[in-house]
Amino acid sequence: MNSWWGRLMMKRLCRLVWLLPLTAVLLFTLVSLAPIDPVQAYVGARMSMIGPEQQAAIEAAWGLDQPGWIRFFHWLAHLVQGDLGDSISYNAPVLTVLVERFPASLALMGCSFLAAFVVGSGLGVLAAACQGRWPDRLIRGWAMVISVSPGFWIALLFISIFAVQLAWLPSCCALPPGVTQDEAHWWQYGRHLVLPVLTLSIYGTGPLILHVRQRLIGFLDGPSARHLRLHGMSSTRLALGPGSRHALGSAVTVHLASIGELFGGSVLAETIFAWPGLGQATVKAATGADAPLLLGIALVTVVVVLLGNLLADILAAWVDPRLRIMPQEETLPRLKRLPWLKASARLKTASRLKVEPKS
Amino acid sequence: MKTQQMMSLQVEALTLTMKGHSQPLVGPLSWRLEAGQCMGLVGGSGAGKSLVADALFQALPAEIECQGRMTLNDAPLSPLSMALMPQSIEALDPLAPVTQQIRRFARRNAEAVDPTRLLAQVQLEAEAGALFPHQLSGGMARRVLLALTLATGADWLVIDEPTLGLDPTVADQLIQLLSTLKAQGKGVLLISHDLVRLIQVADEVMILASGQQVETAPVAAFDGSGGGLKHPFSRALWQAQQWTQNPLTIHQGDER
Amino acid sequence: MKRVMVSIVSIVTRSDDTGKSYRLALFMAIVVTLMIWGGGALPDTMMAVNPAQRSLAPSWQHWLGTDLLGRDMASRTLAGLAQSLKVGLLAAALSTLLAMVMGMMAALNRSLDRLVSSLTDMMLGMPHFVLLIMVAYAFGGGTVGVTWAVALTHWPRLARLLRHEAKTLVKSDYVQVSRSLGRSNLWLARHHLMPHLMPQWIAGFVVIFPHAILHEAGLSFIGLGIEPHLPSIGVMLANSLNAMLAGFWWVVLAPGLGLMLVAFGFERLGERLRRQALPPDRGSSGVSPGQVA
Predict the structure, then answer these.
(1) What are the Cα distances from residue A257, in Å, to A276, C116, C127?
(2) Residue from the list C130, C141, C285 with its beta carbon closest to the beta carbon of A264
(3) A254 vs C128, C244, C288: nearest CB
(4) How far apart are the first and last CA of chain B?
(5) What is the DSSP string of A194-257?
(6) Which of A221, A226, A227 would best serve as a mutation to test chain B binding (most B beta carbons within 10 A)?
(7) Mind listing the pLDDT tens digit for each residue in C189-230?
(8) What is the DSSP letter of C172?
(9) C-alpha distances out from residue B165 to A226, B241, B247, Å
């Protein structure tokens, strides 16, 4: 644990020790607060067919008659054993649902993540290189507009243009109707992936473009770039060489830290495109009062986002050595409020109060 | 004698003017710097010393116009035949280790550059090559900046305020380093307001008063009360520096 | 009254950057007021179901066309925007208020400070939209649910910023003197902290607002937000899917464009205010500078 990333990992692990339990408590509390009767959600329309005794029996069987904190520890104990409970809406263990749906989400989010990074940082570099001229204005305006456009609206527009008017691409699902996973060709899969990835990645480029542009301009206008330019380095070389470390290094960090946003976008995108991933399951769980599934998904995404942030921190310190934690670096002891300051202040103010006549 | 004649950086009537103004900011300045010599450039704050360096490198702000003739061995002066050591250590790239920065500047050099040897030349350990700028002390950072100018292989160095913010011992060492470079045949234009250290290395000193070149004096003139200096401003500048020197050395012990 | 008018006019007509911000702010305030008032005052007949005029393309009579039930899209968009703006305003106000309280509490009390920073860290560590869904779910969805969801999830960044500002204020001499004179924390917060934090607070509100309405629309879109029978942008877009697949593109274009334009205006205003009132925030997790919401 002598290297800087070892110290970083230790620091982050210590954080996780209190962060994860606190998060689990918060999530569980939120789900338990919901004014939805789980029994009713489970039984659904047949509620009228069961009497109050049967209802109480089901509640007892699920442990719903117990106080909240007992239910929490019950849930936690099962969680530690890898049991996340049963999903009501999919009629299967939550873990199975998660494992089944994770690959589709991973494909969608992974492709979007990469596409957004390539396009976003490319446009950002271009904008910085043309600072103040029309390509820069165009790209900046574009970034601004998409960062305030509702992502799901962009998806609907794409469907309207590419799927309905032009009829180039499919608008629904991961595969053509009637084709099973085994029969499918990879290109069928790919064709269905295009529109969701386009939607999701466009949404992610907005902040990235602005960030890369800002960082690169900051470097190119800064003293060290000026110094290199004075000694004969060309602007292109400057932007692609030393500048890339300034711009892209932090771009990776920002992009990784925005994985949570990406997942949020995928919830909407998967709903619109009927993509069989975790996002679609989230909506189904939330609207179908499927508390165990909702909790499970929330936990998975929290872990993914934490990992993303950890990776972002490591990369940030790798790119910028000023962020590395050095062993000799000790936090200065916080200055205690000085008692004499208190006393003298009181004295001063008291004397002033005496002199000033009261009106 | 003829080679001496050939190797010189000559500036005639260098005048810097703010666009739309008739009064020049700096100049007209004229000087001639020979290889293996050091020309000092002094003046009060805001006299336009750093602008002169920018003018040599054709890197003036857009609103300043530059007139005059700058030649190197009678050919027009190219910025690429000189190297600048800037005033601020911000000029170091914060995200690159020293060795990598040396390589960036060495790209211009026709000869292969060994970073370790270069670091040794500015009296830095080879280990310093792996350090990032934020890990360097002020004196080390200045030496790295000097190493960067050497990496370019340029024969003409423009050194801007090398001792600013350094403590006296470190500043003296840096000046010592500059005289070694001078002895190796580099032509040095040394911009500083630290006249006392300047005359330890310079052969001639050019004095600016609010942008005007009032005098170019040989170092020998800076002696005693400055009787050898022609212009009253030069004398005042010299006396002021001497006056501050003495009380400072007396009081230094009492301060802490 | 006259003096107020005169000072407003003199501020708005300033030719510098600040004047530009004030003009934009005044313009956005007028737009929002008109929309909320206009959306509420629309006669019911404008939005009534009219089977004779189903799915008409935009024309002089129906500027933005009609939907599958023959309702005028322009009126519905306006009414939907009014609804979204109302929820957004309330949620953003609650959120910034929460941020203010949290920030001041953290600055004035050390143990509360620890609590607030852990809570902030935790909230920022969670995927934003999932948290929104969870809170909306906890409140059982609907207009109430979505308002609370947005209000309870958008405060952390602003709270972190206000906490930082308040902490430097608390360290200053005059606050320390007041404290040693026996003033209560409440008094300090009201007289020393709040007036100084006002600019950041207002800037924070404007920055949060567009996010609030966008997230409200997102939640309504997936069915966890505003009730389906009320006009709202999210619900309208969710219902437009079938009409759009049938080729009636105008049912999609109008509501989204309206929402985007309002959000765009506030984003621009927020950008200006942020530059003027908020210092660049350099978080440890590489959050882009100045990002508040």
Answers:
(1) 25, 21, 10
(2) C130
(3) C288
(4) 54
(5) HHHHHHHHHHHHHHHHHHHHHHHHHHHTSHHHHHHHHTT--HHHHHHTHHHHHHHHHHHHHHHH
(6) A227
(7) 888 888 888 888 888 898 889 889 999 999 998 888 888 888
(8) S
(9) 22, 17, 19
Nearest CA to B123 among B184, B83, B181? Answer: B181
Residue B109 phi/psi, 5-degree rounding, is -80, 135
Question: Taking CB atoms and an 8 Å limit, are C134 and A301 in contact across chains?
Answer: no
Q: How far apart are the first and last CA of chain C?
A: 36
Distances (CA, A) of B237 to A179, B163, B202, B210: 91, 18, 16, 13
Contact B84 A230 (CB under 8 A): yes
Tokens read off for B125: 């350990």
Q: Vertex B246, ends B242 and B252: CA angle to 5°?
A: 135
Mapped onto helix, strand or coil, the DSSP state of residue C25 is: helix
The owner of tokens 């649910």 is C145
What is the residue-level pLDDT of chain A in tens, covering all 359 positions?
467 778 888 888 888 888 888 888 888 888 888 777 767 766 666 666 777 777 777 777 766 667 777 788 888 888 888 777 888 788 888 888 888 888 889 889 999 999 999 999 999 988 888 888 888 899 988 888 888 888 888 888 888 888 877 878 777 777 776 667 666 777 777 788 888 888 889 888 888 898 899 889 888 888 889 889 888 888 888 888 888 888 888 888 888 888 888 888 889 888 888 888 888 899 888 888 888 888 899 988 888 888 888 888 888 888 888 777 665 444 333 333 344 444 444 444 444 444 433 33
> Cα(B48)–Cα(B62) distance, rounded to whole angstroms?
16
Q: Which domains does chain C have, with CATH numbers?
A: 19-38+73-292 (1.10.3720.10)
**DSSP class of B206:** E
Taking a C-beta distance cutoff of 8 angstroms, is the pair C277, C201 a contact? no
Residue with tokens 């509620």: A47
Cα(A326)–Cα(C202) distance, rounded to whole angstroms?
39
pTM as predicted: 0.78
Phi and psi (nearest 5°) for B60?
-75, 150
Strand, coil or helix: what is C243?
Answer: helix
Which candidate, A216, A1, A37, A213, places its Cα nearest to that of A120?
A213
| Beta strands at B24-34 and B8-18: parallel, antiparallel or unpaired | antiparallel
A109 and chain C in contact, CB less than 8 A: no
